Amino acid sequence: MKTIGFIKSLKIEEADSLFEVDQPMPELKQQDVLVRIEAISINPADAKIRIRSAAEQPHDEPKILGYDAVGVIEKLGPDVAGFKEGDRVWYAGDVNRPGSYAEYQAVDHRIIAKAPVGVAPTSSASMPLVSLTAWEILFDRLQVPLDDSSSSLLIIGGAGGVGSVTTQLARALTQLQVVATASRPESSDWCRKMGAHEVVDHRDLVQNFRATDREFAEFIVQYADLAQHWDAMCELVAPQGRIGTIVETSEKIDISALQGKSAALMWELMFTRTLFGTADIANQGHILDRVARLVEDGTIQTTQTRVLTGLSAETLKTAHEIIESGTMIGKLVVDFTK
């Protein structure tokens, strides 16, 4: 089968930053399904892993990226339950295993779900990773209440893929007042389209947030630059409030700044359950199933804003260039069927 991979961490414009690799069909483990991939989306994680994972030493074998996919089940492992051949499924995959820049992929059935019915694969492909991340940070990490209309949620990086879904889930499933950050007119409009009650400029965040007549945010999620926004978050988080982030930093931050408020910092990595084989690994399949139903009934909308076509090194290089520009609103999708 055709796959797209890399060995060395190179700038995307270099010839071998991504290249075509002919590989054998995946071998299925007991819990696996074999999926013929129809569409994927490109995430910042794709570019980060390409840039960082082989910076010091090349991979021994080509590494296949890709952490979102929609496709059709072609084969079932012996211990698979709840799925059949021909089911269209969606998932975000597992960083321990070859990714979705491929014609076919083997994936553990516990972390997949049936894709939304009546939704194009390209649209569906925009959702799995960001939906899992948004759901886990809201409900597993921060444990936001469902019925509290007096508390607010500040989303730093509201126009990106995770921010877009976080806004929608918060509006659909909780009573929180949602304030999102954006700095351009088009990204501000997008945040409002996703359902934000207020949109503020992240530049001079404290002043702009407080201009909404809110002194503190009980919950803050940070999807942009942890170090850049750390002081502002410490100032804005409510006493006994909670901050969640998906963005690591090499800079030192003063976590003691949260001590006086008894505030919490929570990390979210969508791959934790698969990396460590946690006892609740199947929760990811359950979350994706719940999100699929929310998409089907129109409660939340998919976040695809741009589509490229074809499983090729050229197409995926273009996709990485776009992601690395840092200007994406919503999600970039690649259609493998054209």
TrEMBL record:
Protein name in the entry: Zinc-type alcohol dehydrogenase-like protein
Signal peptide (from-to): none
Molecular function, one GO term: oxidoreductase activity
Keyword terms: Metal-binding, NADP, Oxidoreductase, Zinc
SUPFAM superfamilies, alphabetized: GroES-like (SSF50129), NAD(P)-binding Rossmann-fold domains (SSF51735)
Pfam family, one: ADH_zinc_N_2
Alphabetized InterPro entries for the sequence: ADH-like_N, ADH_Zn_typ-1, ER, GroES-like_sf, NAD(P)-bd_dom_sf, Zinc-ADH_QOR/CCCR
Residue ranges annotated for the Enoyl reductase (ER) domain, each copy included: 5-334
Protein family: Belongs to the zinc-containing alcohol dehydrogenase family. Quinone oxidoreductase subfamily.
CDD domains according to UniProt: AL_MDR
